[in-house]
Every structure is written in structure tokens, then in C-alpha cells.
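User: Before I run my own analysis I want an independent prediction to cross-check against. Here's the chain; please return only the C-alpha cells and, at the end, one sentence I can use as a sanity check.
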Amino acid sequence: MTEFLDNYKPLKPLIFDSHSHYDDSKFDGVRDELLSSLPQHGVGRVITCGCDLKSSKAAISLAQKYDYIYCAVGIHPENLESKTTVEEIEKLAAHKKVAAIGEIGLDYYYCRENRSEQLYFFEQQIILAKKLELPVIVHDREAHSDTLEILKKHKPRGVVHCFSGSAQMAEEILKIGMYIGVGGVITFKNSKKLPEVVKMLPPDRMLIETDCPYLAPEPYRGKLCHSGMIALTAEKIAEIRGCTAEEVLKQTYLDAQKLFCL
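Assistant: C-alpha cells:
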């Protein structure tokens, strides 16, 4: 866990991690030590996301404990079997540190048999977010067409996190008024489409994220990921866009603050 932080020169608080899962069991045993240390390494804001009722409540608890952490509550498409209802999510969303409805969306990679149920809960949670005037954090895995169709229909504020679509799909997302979430995948050698997306994005329509504890950027791929590692993602984005990592971090911080009203 500390290998990266031990070797990393502290930044000013420029990092806004727009997507994390600090309730994940992979953080058990190191969670409090890690979260207490991150602000010393440039992390100024974090959104930790729920996936069902239990994890959404855990996200709220973490946001209550740490001033710099905010949270999202929602039903992930892989967690529909938990039978969490949209009404239960609405109750949780009343908490003052809930900044978004998420992680919500469609996943046709792991969940192929319940597409109608996924589509229903995705739409219902977008409707809830619009009712509560909150942005959405959208999961889209191998469901680009249906995801885009629903987003075009409802036009929510929000971000498509861990974006895996084409530059053409990104253009359609931008037309809706949404943001594109970019994480450690941009540093992977087999990342082909994402660099093209990052190259074409307007500077004020991109957010940076980790999706931690997963998707640590190179050279830490496969290890426990955390928000401090966003500095490495920013360096790769800067290389692609021909700017500095500090410029990337500053702009994405401002845009995340704007989207999540923080």
C-alpha cells in the first residue's frame, strides 16, 4: 500500500478522485491509515461510490468520518439481486454528504441475462437523480448502445466513469452535457481507444478517477490502488494532450467541484 506514497513527492491538494470504492474489503486493515494519509499527498477531494444499500451506507459512513470524502449512493447493475429499492436509495440521498447517484448503469459483460431489469433500474435511478437535482455516475461495460440511448433520452448531469467507448461515443456524451471519466487504464500498454478519446476531449469535460482498489496505473498495475496514484494518470494524460500534469489536475479538480457542487 505505501510503496507509491513512500516514493512520491507530496503535491499541493490538486487531486480530485471522482470515483472510488473505499468500503471495499481489499482496504480492510489499512483503510484508516491510508485515508488519514492521503491529504498529505495531494488528495483534496474524493467521491466514494455505493453499489447497493450496504455499500451506499458504508460510503456515507466514510464521508462522515473524513472531511475531504464525499459519496454517491446507488444500485450497480451487478448488484440488482440485493433487492435494494430506488426508494431506499432516495432516503440515503438525503444525507448532506451525498453528492451523486451512483454507481448506476448497465453491464452486459458480467450480467447478460437480466438486461430488462438493468434497463429499468438504470432509468429509475436517473429519474431519481433529476428529481433530487443530483448528478449521476454511470457504469457502462459492453452496453454502449443502450447506455447512450438512455442518456440521450433523459439528459442527466453526470459522468460516464471509466470510459471505454469510442471517440464518436464520447462526442455524443459531450453533446448531452456530461463528463468523461478517465482512470489508470489510460496508462496501460493495451489501451487503444482511450488515448484517442483523451486527445479529443475539451479540457473542461474530463474527470480523473481511480475506481480503487482496482485499476492501479502503471507501474503499479495489479496492486492496491488509491487516490494518490491519480498523479500518474495525470502525467499520462498530460503527455497525450501536450500540457503539464499540474494543468490536468487543476482543471479536473475545478470541473469535479462544478459537477458535484462542492
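Sanity check: The first helix runs from residue 2 to 6.
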